UniProtKB/TrEMBL annotation:
Residues 1-11 have a biased composition (Basic residues). Pfam families: Spaetzle. One of its GO terms (biological process) is innate immune response. One of its GO terms (cellular component) is extracellular space. Keywords: Disulfide bond, Glycoprotein, Signal. Residues 1-21 are annotated as: Disordered. GO terms for molecular function: growth factor activity; Toll binding. It comes from Ignelater luminosus (Cucubano). Residues 92-183 form the Spaetzle domain. This is Spaetzle domain-containing protein.
Amino acid sequence: MQAVRRRRPPKVRPEGIEQRNNFPSSLASESFLENENCIYNLCSNISRYPSTIIKDMINKKKEFHRFFGSVIQPYHVPTLAAKSPINGEDKNMCPTQQYTYFPEIALNRNRKKMFIVNVDKFKQAVSFETCVPKANCFLANHKPAGYTTACKQQYNLIRLVSMTEHGNLTLDTFPIPSSCVCTYRQVIGYT
């Protein structure tokens, strides 16, 4: 008896989630070097950003409209002065810088370059905090003997409406800086 081969049905995507468009890829020419336009793999003010194509696509795809606005921003928990044991303002253990970016190109969680939809009334603001480069933890000189400290960048994954190099409009996941923490570890060989 001969086995019957079954054909798998084709994968069907939900209607309207992706749209194909034929445009030349300009992603390869963009660099992710840290400069005034790029920080932590988020770039804005891109010279070859396909804004007209993106505007046309996003205007046709109403199901994506609800994703626009301030995507992520820091939240500071209110404190009660009466409960604080120390008068004054709380300080971070590591110095930080605050940014609000409207990225046009970013690396997704798979390290693939993607165009981010940021045109006209369809903006995605990303506010984040980064470690000041080469900064030490507060009170680093007072750490226990045999330990070293360092300020380390932390990340969150967020979803942004984006377009691939093939012209697909999609919702993808991107690592975004979230906070800076002071870490410590024991020095190897210290006794």
